[in-house]
Write a structure and sequence with these properties.
The structure holds two protein chains of two kinds. By secondary structure, chain A is mainly β. The chains are: A mainly beta, B mainly beta.
Chain lengths: 113, 112
């Protein structure tokens, strides 16, 4: 069964450093999502791509976060500089289209020290 | 705006007994509602979804949920808990742009 791949699974970084996460969606899925899940809370959408275009980044802290999906396949989420409050699980999901069922990857757990 | 409230942060049951995870929603129109499960170190998995068809929705692994408009509820149930059901469960509503809004989660503990 096809799955959404994410790497790394765990990342520890010092504050003010840069960090990047990678996501490879299920083959053929046009829509890709990045979520942030703070401990004890539900996931919150950061950014949504349709192919290579951003369709929703209203909750993305654009002063330090950036996301790209250059060829409309895999995607990278970057934080620079990282802050203590960025410690969370970062989840990637994909769907066939923007109203389709979302399939989630295992996530990257970020700890900022 | 759409939102969901999960009424219990933790639920503990004995193996073989019924499971009830409670969720209330707020929506200005007929909502789409979902339950997702998150096992440790695994991605979120869709258990079931309601999209204005039958009010009783059957999902995977013996779970089901009933949409009650009068009570604005979408509680998740299972007749008999199994040890493998221990996980975090999220009630989710989608907004008018099909964006998923997650509740804060309920951790289900299953005692042997």
């Amino acid at each position: 069964e096809a799955e959404v791949a994410q790497s790394p699974r765990y990342k520890i970084t010092e504050k003010s450093q840069a960090v990047a996460f990678w996501c490879d969606p299920i083959s053929g899925h046009a829509t890709l999502y990045w979520y942030r899940q703070i401990l004890g809370q539900g996931p919150e959408l950061l950014v949504q791509f349709q192919d290579e275009s951003v369709v929703d980044d209203s909750q993305l802290p654009k002063d330090r976060f950036s996301a790209e999906r250059l060829k409309g396949v895999d995607s990278t989420l970057k934080i620079q500089p990282a802050e203590l409050g960025d410690s969370a699980m970062y989840l990637c999901a994909s769907s066939l289209w923007d109203r389709g069922e979302q399939y989630f990857g295992p996530g990257t757990r970020l700890t900022v020290t | 705006a759409q939102s969901v409230t999960q009424l219990d942060s933790h639920v503990s049951v004995s193996e073989g007994t019924p499971v009830l995870l409670r969720c209330n929603y707020s929506s200005s129109y007929s909502p789409s509602l979902f339950w997702y499960v998150q096992h440790p170190n695994k991605g979120l998995q869709l258990l079931l979804k309601y999209t204005s068809a039958a009010t009783l929705v059957k999902g995977i692994n013996g779970f089901e949920a009933e949409f009650k408009k009068s009570e604005t509820s979408f509680h998740l149930t299972k007749p008999s808990a199994h040890m493998s059901d221990a996980a975090e469960y999220f009630c989710v509503v989608s907004d008018s742009s099909y964006k998923l809004i997650f509740g804060s989660g309920t951790r289900l503990l299953v005692r042997p």
